[in-house]
Task: inverse folding
């Protein structure tokens, strides 16, 4: 296993630690004489996990270690991290449930569309909107966690959360547009090939009939 894939697995390992830190409300941790609240510990875990997302992609491209396993695991790790963080924040009443449902539902819907497209032989690449969505998700969750000890960040956290939902819905619409375009092209191509096949069969039948007619005349 190469280092980028190991970092991706490490991000998945961070998920239960993040949830455990978030759901233990009013808990404190002592680290070298420094007392940290559970929100700060959760923030450190989340930022560490988000950093591995940046680092594994950079190293995979830099060292030319892009593998099929890595391409499959990376989006799964991202979705697990964001989904787990949102669900835990709903549990501690820091994020409205309906917002979390929309954001997480968008992730699964887009993954489903990309899987269907892949089964048809097409790849829907991540768009710039999708990449912006991921950045806003990380920013929003980090601000929500930090706003517990820095109350002045609360309005910015809410703004970032709304931005996350907006970018998520807009990028989902972009994926639907690409999906529909690819599937429409696939259906048109199938129809074209079917018409070509039928025309070839018709021509063969005509040739057979002509050959049979010539045979009858020769007798």
Result:
């Amino acid at each position: 296993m190469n280092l980028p894939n190991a970092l991706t697995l490490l991000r998945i390992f961070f998920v239960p630690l993040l949830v455990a830190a978030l759901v233990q409300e009013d808990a404190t941790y002592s680290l070298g004489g420094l007392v940290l609240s559970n929100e700060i510990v959760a923030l450190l875990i989340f930022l560490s996990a988000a950093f591995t997302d940046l680092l594994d992609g950079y190293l995979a491209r830099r060292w030319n270690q892009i593998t099929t396993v890595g391409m499959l695991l990376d989006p799964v790790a991202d979705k697990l991290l964001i989904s787990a963080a949102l669900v835990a924040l709903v549990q501690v009443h820091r994020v409205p449930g309906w917002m979390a449902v929309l954001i997480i539902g968008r992730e699964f819907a887009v993954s489903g569309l990309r899987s269907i497209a892949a089964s048809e032989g097409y790849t829907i690449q991540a768009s710039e909107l999708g990449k912006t969505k991921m950045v806003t998700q990380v920013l929003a969750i980090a601000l929500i966690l930090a706003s517990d000890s820095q109350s002045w960040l609360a309005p910015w956290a809410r703004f970032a959360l709304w931005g996350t939902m907006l970018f998520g819905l807009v990028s989902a619409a972009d994926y639907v547009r690409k999906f529909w375009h690819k599937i429409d092209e696939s259906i048109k191509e199938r129809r074209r090939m079917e018409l070509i096949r039928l025309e070839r069969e018709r021509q063969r039948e005509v040739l057979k009939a002509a050959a049979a007619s010539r045979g009858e005349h020769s007798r």
